[in-house]
TrEMBL record, chain B:
Region (Disordered): 1-20
Superkingdom per UniProt: Bacteria
InterPro entries (UniProt xref): PDH/Transketolase, THDP-binding, Transketo_C/PFOR_II, Transketolase-like_Pyr-bd, Transketolase_C
Source organism of this protein record: Muriicola marianensis
SMART domains: Transket_pyr
Ranges of compositional bias, category Basic and acidic residues: 1-13
Database matches in SUPFAM superfamilies: Thiamin diphosphate-binding fold (THDP-binding) (SSF52518), TK C-terminal domain-like (SSF52922)
Annotated CDD domains: TPP_PYR_DXS_TK_like
Originating gene: tktC
Domain Transketolase-like pyrimidine-binding residue range list: 10-175
PANTHER family: PYRUVATE DEHYDROGENASE E1 COMPONENT, TRANSKETOLASE-LIKE PYRIMIDINE-BINDING DOMAIN-CONTAINING PROTEIN
Identification of the protein by name: Transketolase
Length: 281, 318
C-alpha cells in the first residue's frame, strides 16, 4: 500500500502528463482529465486488484471501463505509469499511426483498454456485460466504470441503470464524475440532471456520495466502502463531486477547458503549479 | 434443371431457434440475449435448458448491444435476438463503437427482416439493414434462405471469431436445402448450372429464383442460380466465374436496391468484368401492411419479377 504522499506525487506527475500531451498536439480534453486524476490514481494504485500482464478477458482481476472516453489523457497517463505500455508512447497521443487515439480504443491493440469509447453513453452497458461474464465465470472480482455527469443525458444509460438494478448486478461499481459541467455550460442549465444519486437509488442502486472527489483519502475511503457494499444484491454507484481542471488554477471551475489545449505560456504556468515528481515522459 | 424439393414450409427464425438449442448443448461459451421477443426468436428451448446463459434485457436494444459487447470480455459468445429493424437501425452507433470498432465477437441475430414480416407494416419492415451492416468494417453479413440453412449458419457463426450480422425472417417458406449441410461463411452455393444468365439470390428470394429458373427453362432459357448467403465477405470468385460464362446477371434480395447485395455484386463486376445487371429489390421505398405473398408480388420480389428481370437483362446482353 502506497502512502498518501506517494499517491499525491503520482497524481501531480499525471497532471503534468495531461497538460503536456494536450499541449503538444494542440487538442484533447484536459478539464475532465484533471478533474479525475485523483480518482484514476486511487483506482489503479490502491483499489483495483490487477494482474501484472494485460489480457482482454481480465479473468481473476478487477477491470475498469472508461465510458466518457474523451478524458483519454488521464487514462493513458495512468496506464503508462502503471506499466501497461512504454511511457514514451505518451509522446504519440493523437498523432498519426499512434495506439493512443483521441478516444480510447481496442482497435490498435493498446494494452489496458478493453472497449472503444467516445460516443457517449455506452460504457455502462459494456461494464454490465463484463460483470455478468464475471458472474458466469464465478470470478469474484469487481467491474469498475467511470461516466461523465453530462453523459447521463444519453438515454442508453437509463436502460443500463434500470437493467443493473433490476437484475441485481452487484459486482459493478459505477462512478459518476459530477463536475456539473458540459460543453455548452453547466449541466443544470443545459439539461438539468437534478439529484443524480436519488435517480440511481430509485432504480435500485446502492448510492454513495463522494463530496471531496479530488481528495485522495476521501476517494480511497469511499471506493473501499463501495467495495464492501458490493455482492449484496445491488449495483453500487459513487457520485463523485469533482472540480473540472483540478490542479491547474486557471482551468478550474469552468467548462472552458473541456476540450481546449493550453498555449506555450499557459503550459508553463500549469507545469509551475505541478512540479515534476517522477520524471516527465 | 436440378430439382429441389420443398421438405415442408418452415420459418427461418425457427431454424435459428433450432440452431441455438444445439449450440446451447454443445458450446458452453454461447450465451443469448433478447429484447422482449423470446417467442418471436424461438429461443424458448435454449432458455429452458440454459437459464443461466440467457439474459432478458427488456425493450432496451441499445443496452442489449452494449451488454453483449461486455460479455465477450470474459470469453463468452453472445447472440443477440430481436427484429432486424431493432437489431440494426435502432442501435447502429452501439454496434459501430462497442462491437465493430471494438472488434467484439458478438453475433447479431435478426428476425422479421424485410417486407415478409407482413401486416405490422413499414415501421417494422427494414429494407436497409444489409447496407447498414455491410458498411461496418470487419462485420460479416449473412442472409439465409430456409430453415435448414439458417440452422446451419447459426452453428457456423459460433465458430467464427468476429462480429456477425445474421438476417432471417418471419414467414413460413419452402425448406429445400440439405438438413445435413455444412455452412461455409463466404462461400456461395451453386444451386443450378446454366449458360444464358446468372441469377444471384439471397434470403427468401433464393427459392423464388429457383422457381423463376424452372419457368425460364420452359422457354428454353438456361439460368445459373447461385445462393449467396454471405453478402460480406462476398464470394467474388464464384460470381465472376459464372458471369464470364453467362455474360449477364440478375441479383435478387428482399432489400432496397441501394446498399444491398445487388450493389455489392455490381461493384465486383464493374471492377473485374462489367456485364449487364438487373436488380430484383425494392426501389428506394418503405413497405406497407399486407400478407407476405401480397407484398412480395406488389414490390416485385417474387419469381414472376425475377423472370421478367431475366428477360430484360437478356435483351440488354443481346
Amino acid at each position: 500500500m502506497a502512502s498518501l504522499q506517494d499517491l499525491a506525487k503520482i497524481a501531480t506527475q499525471v497532471r503534468r502528463d495531461i497538460v503536456r500531451m494536450v499541449h503538444k498536439v494542440n487538442s484533447g480534453h484536459p478539464g475532465g482529465s484533471l478533474g479525475c486524476t485523483e480518482f484514476f490514481v486511487a483506482l489503479y494504485y490502491e483499489i483495483m486488484k490487477l494482474h501484472d500482464t494485460f489480457t482482454m478477458d481480465g479473468i481473476g482481476e478487477d477491470i475498469f471501463f472508461l465510458s466518457n472516453g474523451h478524458i483519454s489523457p488521464v487514462y493513458y497517463s495512468v496506464l503508462a505509469r502503471k506499466g501497461y505500455f512504454p511511457l514514451e508512447e505518451l509522446n504519440t497521443f493523437r498523432m498519426l499511426d499512434s495506439r493512443l487515439q483521441g478516444h480510447p480504443t481496442t482497435h490498435e491493440g493498446l494494452p489496458g483498454v478493453r472497449i472503444a469509447s467516445g460516443s457517449l453513453g455506452q460504457g455502462m452497458s459494456v461494464a454490465i456485460g463484463a460483470a455478468l461474464a464475471k458472474k458466469l465465470n464465478k470470478d469474484e472480482h469487481i467491474v469498475y466504470s467511470l461516466h461523465g455527469d453530462g453523459e447521463l443525458q444519453e438515454g442508453q444509460n437509463w436502460e443500463a441503470i434500470m437493467f443493473a438494478g433490476s437484475k441485481k448486478v452487484d459486482n459493478l461499481i459505477a462512478t459518476i464524475d459530477r463536475n456539473s459541467q458540459q460543453i455548452d455550460g453547466n449541466t443544470e442549465d443545459v439539461m438539468a440532471l437534478g439529484d443524480v444519486g436519488e435517480k440511481f437509488r430509485v432504480f435500485g442502486w446502492d448510492v454513495l456520495e463522494l463530496k471531496e472527489g479530488n481528495d485522495l483519502k476521501a476517494i480511497i475511503d469511499t471506493l473501499k466502502d463501495a467495495k464492501k457494499r458490493s455482492g449484496k444484491g445491488k449495483p453500487v454507484c459513487v457520485i463523485m463531486h469533482t472540480v473540472m481542471g483540478n490542479g491547474v488554477d486557471f482551468m478550474m471551475h469552468t467548462h472552458a477547458w473541456h476540450g481546449k489545449a493550453p498555449n506555450d505560456e499557459q503550459l508553463a504556468i500549469a507545469l509551475d503549479q505541478n512540479e515534476e515528481t517522477l520524471g516527465d515522459y | 434443371m436440378k430439382k429441389y424439393t420443398d421438405q415442408g414450409k418452415k420459418d427461418t427464425r425457427s431454424g435459428f431457434g433450432a440452431g441455438m438449442t444445439e449450440l446451447g448443448r454443445k458450446n458452453p461459451q454461447v450465451v443469448s440475449l433478447c429484447a422482449d421477443l423470446v417467442g418471436s426468436l424461438k429461443l424458448d428451448e435454449f432458455i429452458e435448458e440454459n437459464p443461466d446463459r440467457f439474459f432478458q434485457v427488456g425493450i432496451a436494444e441499445a443496452n442489449m448491444m452494449g451488454i453483449a459487447a461486455g460479455l465477450t470480455i470474459g470469453g463468452y459468445i453472445p447472440f443477440t435476438g430481436t427484429f432486424a429493424n431493432f437489431s440494426t437501425g435502432r442501435v447502429y452507433d452501439q454496434i459501430r463503437q462497442s462491437i465493430a470498432y471494438s472488434g467484439k465477437n458478438v453475433k447479431i441475430c435478426a428476425s422479421h427482416a424485410g417486407l415478409t414480416l407482413g401486416e405490422d407494416g413499414a415501421t417494422h419492415q427494414i429494407l436497409e439493414d444489409i447496407g447498414l451492416m455491410k458498411m461496418l468494417p470487419g462485420m460479416t453479413v449473412i442472409n439465409t434462405c430456409d430453415f435448414n440453412q439458417t440452422k446451419a449458419a447459426t452453428l457456423a457463426i459460433a465458430d467464427h471469431e468476429g462480429p456477425v450480422y445474421l438476417r432471417f425472417g418471419r414467414p413460413k417458406v419452402p425448406n429445400f436445402t440439405d438438413p445435413e449441410q455444412e455452412f461455409h461463411i463466404g462461400k456461395a452455393v451453386m444451386l443450378n448450372e446454366g449458360k444464358d444468365v446468372t441469377v444471384i439470390a439471397t434470403g427468401h428470394l433464393v427459392w423464388e429464383a429457383l422457381q423463376a429458373a424452372e419457368a425460364l427453362e420452359q422457354e428454353g432459357i438456361s439460368a445459373e442460380v447461385i445462393n449467396i448467403h454471405t453478402i460480406k465477405p462476398l464470394d467474388e470468385e464464384t460470381i465472376l466465374a459464372s458471369v464470364r460464362k453467362t455474360g449477364c446477371v440478375v441479383t435478387c434480395e428482399e432489400h432496397n436496391y441501394l446498399g444491398g447485395l445487388g450493389e455489392s455484386v455490381a461493384r465486383t463486376l464493374t471492377v473485374h468484368h462489367p456485364v449487364p445487371q438487373e436488380f430484383v429489390a425494392t426501389r428506394d421505398t418503405f413497405g406497407e401492411s399486407g400478407t407476405s405473398d401480397q407484398l412480395m408480388e406488389k414490390y416485385g420480389l417474387d419469381n414472376k419479377a425475377i423472370k421478367e428481370a431475366v428477360l430484360q437483362v437478356l435483351k440488354r446482353k443481346a
